[in-house]
Design brief:
Layout (H helix, E strand, L loop, with lengths): L1 H31 L3 H24 L2 H5 L7 H11 L4 H5 L10 H20 L4 H19 L4 H13 L19 H23 L9 H8 L5 H6 L4 H17 L9 H20 L5 H9 L5 H5 L11 H20 L16 H4 L6 H9 L20 E9 L6 E2 L22 H11 L24 H10 L22 E11 L2 H7 L3 E13 L21 H6 L3 H8 L4 H4 L9 H11 L14 H11 L2 H27 L2 H5 L12 H13 L2 H9 L13 H4 L1 H6 L1 H18 L9 H14 L5 H8 L18 E3 L5 E3 L5 E2 L3
Antiparallel strand pairs: 1-2, 1-3, 3-4, 4-7, 5-6
Helix pairs in contact: 1-13, 2-6, 2-8, 2-14, 6-7, 7-8, 8-9, 9-12, 9-16, 13-14, 23-27, 25-27, 27-29, 29-30
Length: 816
């Protein structure tokens, strides 16, 4: 009796739990079998609503960013594309409506037209597929103007591309579609949702270790634009951050597989994803990403279409359906190819120059096909934020101006925290693109980065002489920044242009809630180093105009070959005289410039040890004192052209090593690591004088004899003399990043893991030259002359609870 009395309630509770579980499964099953027309009506309208949000967000941003008086005028970019690419290639490489006109009125009209088209989709009607086509074309056109490279931009363009093929929508107030899509088209949307969620999961967790369990504790502050709740969540106990990370692993890595199991499992994944999107929106601002992902979750509620036979290429199908199915099969194949990549590599992976070394010609066709289709933005890789735990800080570059060379005034963006009192805010689903881009400016992953070809945007103009902050400085110093979009009232419109400006780097650490209530300060602000040196309006290193092909990143070899220089490179490869080719396809370089380069500029350094960069400040001063800025620019272009012609002549010897050279099994006849190293070798030979260069061009096999004498310093020598500010900036950024990665107390890998990592790193360095440049530049430009503000980058240690804390006060604490 005693035991029966004790266990009867427990059996009742168990029975209640079973009944509740069965009821829950019934609800999930009911949700999973919603009417397909209703599901796809909601999904299509959800995409349209996001289009409306995206276009509305751009209506007041596109002019200040890309107008003729903007920071990066799109008219200059379109003119550069006309200069560098012949028709009709340029229209295929960079499709869009800006080819009709790139003036301010048309540029400002594009987002308004897109907003109108999106609202007509929400209203419904038989025109909705055509309206989706218009939205996609308009948003694709704006890619040239505002560089739509964020994950949510990619997701909207990809979802919007396939939305064109969805059935038309019923007129409002009905929300259903007029029919269900074909099973193959429904598969594309389910696969897209899987790729987004699993892509973010694999990026976060691949290669992570136990020491990364505190990832979210630092990320809540370090993320681009934290919200007030994100700022507060940083103070949660570490066990909450660890539990949240474990839950994140389940939602982003495990549950996405459920999308391939139509029914209740898919609905669980959809509901978990929607919940995660709400949590992300509560803690950080990521534009319309959360809204769009929730809209796409709707596809999980249509099990009827998901389990229907695909009927691929059935003979009875109309030609249009067969063509769409072929496109879907190709897209699925491409999705599998780029699944391992992250968001930033999705624009460049088909352009990596080492494909010809890795794959035989018969296997390169997929790369060529997806390279040709990439301008349509119909396929992307997904995943950002690497798994490594990082300190809970924000590195915040502050643009400071002065009108009297004595007092400096800080310009404050509206959404990005700059001062102690800058509050975190909610701004999503609006996406303040200027403010969000500051996080990449701060880390150095911008237009002036040597990592340009590894990750970056689609076009080659992302490799510029200065970063976006440099272009912004120039506008401010010239009194041309009239829009309040960037700095609001902190840049008084009634004052004359500042006489000087600089950008310094500050570390922001979150205060405690008690400190915030007492002082009103959200951050502790510490000056830790330089970002851009003091500049005046006339300084030429602030030039941010789209560079010509000879100044593109050498590893953008595919783009260089596509440009107007391509035919010249092929002629040089065939053995034609480089001096006869170097001034073709331009009216800005003359024979007099060529003679001055070989007879005056190069001989100036004949007695200079190009491996000794301690002489650089004096050499830079000599060069700038002897030649004008425009003449120095022409020297730089000629050096770039001669180097490219030399690369074309010697490339076959470099590529001949193939995959075996990359794997270290057999050296190539010209055994340099990458296309960048090949470019540096040619510049080293140029530094040896005209006769050495001409001898190499006559007999490219002799280039190998210079390898033993070449170093990264001698190869980069001319760049360091002509553009020291750009190189010094990159060196400072790499040292700053290293200070946050090289953490005291971080667990050491095992001997076997370290050996494997070293082997992998050696192979990677034979694919992308940028990695060698990172290691090299970290040790350069450390003299005080290159940094008005001393480098006091913070160092960190791993604590017992797996959080990261500063080792010591790194710099000067600033009170705003």
């Amino acid at each position: 009796m005693f035991f029966g009395t004790c266990f009867r309630p427990r059996r009742g509770l168990l029975a209640d739990g079973v009944r509740a579980s069965l009821a829950g499964i019934e609800v999930l099953d009911l949700l999973a079998h919603a009417p397909p027309e209703l599901v796809w009506g909601l999904v299509a309208r959800g995409i349209a609503v996001v289009y409306a949000i995206a276009f509305a967000s751009l209506t007041f941003q596109v002019g200040p960013i890309a107008g003729r008086e903007g920071v990066a005028p799109v008219a200059e970019l379109m003119a550069a594309i006309r200069r560098d690419f012949a028709a009709p290639r340029r229209w295929l490489y960079f499709p869009g409506l800006l080819w009709l006109h790139a003036g301010d009125r048309w540029l400002r009209a594009l987002p308004w037209l897109g907003l109108t088209a999106a609202l007509t989709i929400v209203a419904g009607g038989p025109h909705t597929p055509l309206a989706f086509l218009l939205c996609w074309a308009l948003y694709l056109s704006l890619d040239r103007a505002v560089v739509l490279v964020y994950p949510w931009d990619s997701l909207l363009l990809e979802a919007g591309f396939w939305a064109m093929f969805l059935p038309a929508l019923a007129w409002a107030p009905a929300v259903a579609a007029t029919g269900a899509p074909t099973p193959a088209l429904a598969w594309v949307f389910r696969l897209l949702l899987f790729r987004v969620m699993f892509g973010f999961g694999k990026q976060k967790f691949a290669g992570s270790t136990r020491a990364d369990a505190g990832f979210l504790q630092g990320f809540t502050i370090r993320q681009p634009l934290p919200t007030p709740f994100g700022w507060l969540a940083h103070r949660a106990p570490m066990w909450i951050h660890k539990a949240a990370l474990a839950l994140l692993f389940v939602v982003e890595v495990v549950l996405p597989l459920a999308i391939f199991v139509p029914g209740p499992a898919s609905v669980v994944f959809a509901l978990a994803t929607a919940g995660l999107m709400l949590a992300i929106a509560a803690t950080g601002n990521y534009g319309f990403f959360n809204v769009l992902t929730i809209a796409l979750c709707g596809v999980c509620f249509d099990s009827a279409t998901a389990v229907a036979p695909l009927e691929l290429f059935a003979p009875s199908l109309p030609a249009t359906t067969l063509a769409l199915q072929a496109l879907i099969v190709l897209h699925t194949f491409g999705a599998l190819l780029c699944l391992p990549l992250n968001t930033w590599a999705s624009f460049t992976w088909t352009l990596w120059p080492w494909w010809e070394r890795v794959l035989p010609g018969a296997l390169r066709w997929p790369i060529a096909v997806f390279r040709g289709l990439q301008p349509l933005r119909w396929l992307h890789a997904y995943g950002v934020f690497p798994p490594r735990s990082a300190p809970a800080i924000k590195m915040s570059p502050a643009l400071e101006v002065t009108w009297d060379e004595a007092r400096w005034h800080t310009l404050t963006p509206r959404w990005w925290p700059t001062l102690e009192g800058s509050p975190p805010r909610w701004v999503a689903p609006h996406h303040p693109r200027f403010d969000h881009a500051i996080v990449y400016e701060a880390t150095g992953f911008h237009e002036a980065s040597v990592l340009r070809n590894l990750t970056g945007r689609w076009d080659p103009y992302g490799h510029a002489r200065c970063s976006g902050a440099g272009r912004l400085m120039r506008r401010v110093l010239r009194g041309e920044l009239r829009s309040r979009l960037f700095f609001g009232d902190s840049l008084p419109a009634e004052r004359e242009a500042p006489v000087a400006a600089r950008v310094r780097m500050y570390m922001l650490e979150a205060t405690t809630p008690a400190e915030q209530r007492a002082s009103g300060a959200w951050w502790r602000r510490t000056l830790v180093g330089p970002h851009l040196p003091r500049a005046r309006a006339e300084d030429r290193w602030l030039d941010g105009q789209p560079p010509p092909p000879e100044l593109w990143a050498p590893e953008d070899w595919r783009w260089i070959g596509r440009s107007r220089l391509g035919p010249l490179l092929r002629r040089a490869a065939a053995g034609e005289d480089p001096h006869a080719l170097v001034c073709l396809e331009t009216t800005e370089l003359t024979r007099a410039d060529v003679d001055a380069l070989w007879d005056e500029f190069v001989p100036m350094f004949a007695a200079t040890d190009r491996d000794d960069w301690s002489q650089l400040p004096a050499l830079v001063e000599r060069v700038r004192g002897r030649w004008s800025g425009p003449q120095i620019d022409r020297f730089e272009r000629l050096l770039g052209r001669y180097a490219l012609l030399g690369m074309a002549r010697c490339e076959r010897l470099f590529v001949a090593g193939g995959l075996r050279a990359i794997l270290g099994r057999r050296p190539a006849p010209l055994d340099v690591e990458t296309h960048l190293h090949l470019n540096l070798l040619i510049k080293h030979v140029i530094g040896e004088g005209r006769e050495a260069y001409e001898a190499m061009m006559r007999q490219p096999e002799t280039a190998a004899q210079w390898l033993a004498r070449m170093s990264l310093r001698s190869g980069w020598f001319f760049e360091a003399v002509l553009r020291p500010e750009r190189m010094a900036h990159q060196a400072q950024k790499f040292r700053m990043l290293a200070s946050q990665v090289e953490v005291r107390g971080w667990p050491r890998p095992s001997a076997r893991a370290a050996k494997l990592a070293a082997w992998g790193a050696a192979r990677v360095r034979r694919l992308w030259g940028a990695f060698a440049m990172i290691e090299f530049l970290r040790g350069e430009f450390q003299e005080e002359i290159w940094a008005e503000t001393p480098e006091r980058w913070p160092r960190f240690e791993l604590c017992a609870d797996l959080s990261l804390r500063p080792l010591a006060e790194p710099g000067e604490t600033i009170r705003s």
